[in-house]
Amino acid sequence: MSEPVEWLAVASEQDLRKDGRLVVTPNGLSILLLRLDEQVYAIGNHCPHLGCPIARGKIDGFMIVCPCHDWTFDIRNGELIIAQEITLPTYRVKIDTQQIYLQIGQPGASNG
Predict the structure, then answer these.
(1) Which domains does the chain carry?
(2) 17-53 exposure pattern, b = at least 16 Cβ within 10 A, e = fewer
(3) What is the pLDDT of residues 48-84, one digit of tens each?
(4) Less CB within 10 Å around the terminal CB: N or C of the chain?
(5) pTM of the model
(6) What is the CA radius of gyration of the chain?
(7) Residue 107 CA: distances (Å) to CA of 17, 67, 97
(8) CB of 78 closer than 8 Å to CB of 90
(9) Residues 7-42: pLDDT tens digits?
(10) Under DSSP, is residue 54 helix (H, G, I), strand (E, B) or coil?
């Protein structure tokens, strides 16, 4: 029997501007919210290499580049481009009544 899905409100849509980024810390986790093409994505905010904050990275399309060592991740699935077995955690996102919710207990889940 699976556990019920719990969603946690982490920000309002107004907090995350168009094509913007916002770091939230629900339950002590540092998570980067990104809005691209009207879609909101949520990924872990620390690079698995040395823990650098991904939020400071450059965004190119759906790719974000770690500001410390240029590791490039796909924000849609968290995968490191050159080694897909290395990933940032991703979190399911939903928006309801202008609030952004994350499914915190489900790292590795895809957006949607």
Answers:
(1) 8-102 (2.102.10.10)
(2) eeeebbebebeebebbbbbbeeebbbbbbbbbeeebe
(3) 999 999 999 999 999 999 999 999 999 999 999 999 9
(4) N
(5) 0.89
(6) 13
(7) 24, 23, 24
(8) yes
(9) 999 999 999 987 799 999 999 999 999 999 889 999
(10) helix
